[in-house]
Design goal:
The chain is of the alpha+beta class. Among the domains are: 232 residues, no CATH class; 144 residues, no CATH class. The chain is 62% helix and 8% strand. The chain contains 22 helices and eight strands. The strands form two sheets. It has a six-stranded mixed β-sheet with strand order 3-7-6-5-4-8. The chain has a two-stranded antiparallel sheet with strand order 1-2. Strand 6 and strand 7 form a beta hairpin.
Length: 539
């Protein structure tokens, strides 16, 4: 469930302390959206309690025998209506093979199904034995009228939603809690499926894996009409797992996700490696030039090697050893034997430093500049008469470096210095269709950071990036929730660092396309119709 666009826009200029205080005390925009949704359900509960004799939202019951039989008959009839309401097309939909017959639906055919459902709801009310049954039939019917009228949902999906009306009616009669809880699995399933399909047009959804999954979900529910919330919970969990695969299964997106996960791992490790090396060198007399090289360059080299080869791979261990060798070589050498060792080992050390920088893509003049600084520093150390670093310290550092991962933390709040070069380096291809939205800009409030972590995969947003507006779907977040990926139907991807995502939400540059969940909006529409014509509830 999303929040409304105003939630993002209202916080522009968040430098105002009063605004940030208000956000922190009132919760996240998503929490406020839930409050509004609970308010809608509260209105419905009051309506049912006040106007329907004997209604009890906490009482589990069974439909009366006549109504139970009628629902089974009508469910079969609705299935037949949906199957016969589409126009046959031979190989006409994406994914259809040669000679295959596919069914094509349009708005007129959805209206045909909706009209029949309205008529069948009237027939069911005549079979109802209690006021509670009549009211439940009417409210569920009004909710599905609203859902089937939602033009942002492709017709091919709406007709399958139509087939859910009878199973949802059955569970609403058995479990009146359906009307009072946002977390009821029947509501959650419809909301998730609806939010995921709203960004697709009829052409792109037809024959897709998403359409196939929606069909499968509905058919599973229809096969187990007596199971109630358990079958809804089962298919809801399955749909969530399906989404995690479907949203990233396209070749370019799948590869980008794989690389982005590695980037997150590499950048997080580089930051932690730097912290640990600072601790190790804190009490050692190491020249500033060497410290800077180790912290700004070599920590990145070690992190990338650990991601590419593994932290205990021979190549990674040799690069770790190079850091220790560099610290020792750059210390004072009053002993003749030590000076001879430096001269002997220097070519191999410089070669290993070059190999590490090559791994990072540091070449040409930039690499030569680093080598010159290190060479000058080693020459100064060679002639220095100051105190040398004790060998025991060097050995302790070497041991700690070799097992550095044991000391590396996993802080989800660590900012990643993400950039397009990192992506291109690890992809090995042109990343022109990838917009890397790195950290920067205004500092987001605590509430906005929390909201960014609560976004649901599959939901659609409008993004305004560098003055260009696009419709995008939230398709992936990394394991540590540091990186987030949004994809447009045109194939452009937006990889956004966590705090930058919160900043975009705060500035109204990333706006949810849904103001409220599908079933909440349907409930609100039903209440409006009942408010205008309250007699229809029990007629």
């Amino acid at each position: 469930m999303g929040s409304n666009p105003g939630d993002g826009v209202a916080t522009r200029g968040s430098g105002n302390v009063g605004d940030e205080t208000r956000l922190m005390t009132s919760g996240t925009p998503l929490a406020r959206a839930r409050q509004r949704a609970n308010g809608v359900l509260g209105q419905l509960r009051r309506l049912l309690t006040d106007r329907v004799a004997g209604f009890d939202i906490n009482h589990v019951t069974r439909p009366s025998p006549a109504l139970d039989e009628a629902m089974s008959i009508h469910q079969t009839a609705v299935q037949a209506t949906v199957a016969g309401s589409g126009a046959a097309s031979v190989g006409g939909a994406p994914g259809a093979g040669a000679g295959e017959v596919d069914i094509v639906y349009d708005d007129a055919r959805v209206e045909q199904v909706a009209t029949e459902l309205r008529q069948r709801s009237g027939d069911l009310k005549k079979k109802a034995a209690t006021s509670t049954e009549k009211a439940t039939i009417e409210i569920v019917a009004l909710m599905f009228q609203s859902i089937l009228a939602e033009e942002r949902i492709p017709p091919a999906i709406r007709v399958w939603f139509a087939r859910l009306q009878m199973p949802v009616l059955r569970v609403a009669i058995a479990e009146p809690e359906f009307f009072g809880s946002l977390s009821h699995p029947a509501r959650q399933l419809i909301d998730r499926m609806g939010s995921c399909v709203m960004g697709f047009d009829a052409a792109s959804i037809g024959g897709s894996a998403l359409e196939t999954e929606v069909k499968r979900v509905v058919q599973v529910i229809e096969q187990y009409p007596e199971t109630g919330r358990r079958v809804f919970q089962l298919v809801y969990d399955e749909f969530q797992k399906f989404l995690s695969r479907f949203l990233t299964e396209k070749g370019p997106t799948q590869r980008l996700v794989s690389v982005a996960q590695q980037v997150e791992q590499k950048e997080t490790m580089a930051i932690q490696y730097t912290i640990e090396m600072r601790k190790m060198l804190n009490d050692m007399p190491v020249r500033d030039e060497v410290r800077e090289f180790l912290f700004k360059v070599w920590a990145e080299v070690l992190a990338l090697a650990a991601v590419k080869h593994g932290p205990q791979h021979q190549e990674t261990l040799s690069l770790k050893k190079a850091a220790t060798d560099l610290v020792w070589a750059a210390s004072a050498k009053p002993n003749r034997n030590d000076r001879a060792r430096v001269i002997q080992d220097l070519p191999g050390l410089l070669l290993k430093l070059r190999q590490g920088m090559e791994l990072m893509g540091i070449q040409g003049p930039e690499q030569e500049s680093h080598i010159k600084v290190i060479g000058d520093t080693l020459a100064d150390a060679f002639l220095s008469k100051t105190e040398a670093i004790p060998q025991a310290h060097i050995e302790a550092m070497a041991q700690r470096l070799a097992n550095l991962e044991d000391f590396v933390g996993d802080d989800p709040n660590t900012d990643l210095p993400l950039d397009a070069e990192s992506i291109e380096l690890m992809l090995g291809i042109d990343a022109s269709m990838i917009e890397v939205v790195a950290d920067g800009g205004s500092r987001p409030s605590i509430a906005m950071v929390a909201w960014a972590q609560e976004l649901q995969l599959g939901n659609w947003f409008t993004i305004d990036h560098n003055g260009i507006t696009a419709q995008v779907q939230y398709v992936w977040r990394s394991e540590r929730k540091q990186l987030h990926l949004f994809a447009s139907p045109e194939g452009r991807s937006y990889l956004i660092q966590a705090r930058r995502l919160a900043s975009y939400l705060q500035a109204g540059l990333l706006v949810p396309n849904e103001e409220e969940a599908l079933t909440v909006r349907a409930t609100r529409d039903a209440l409006a119709k009942l408010d205008a014509n309250p007699e229809r509830l029990l007629q």
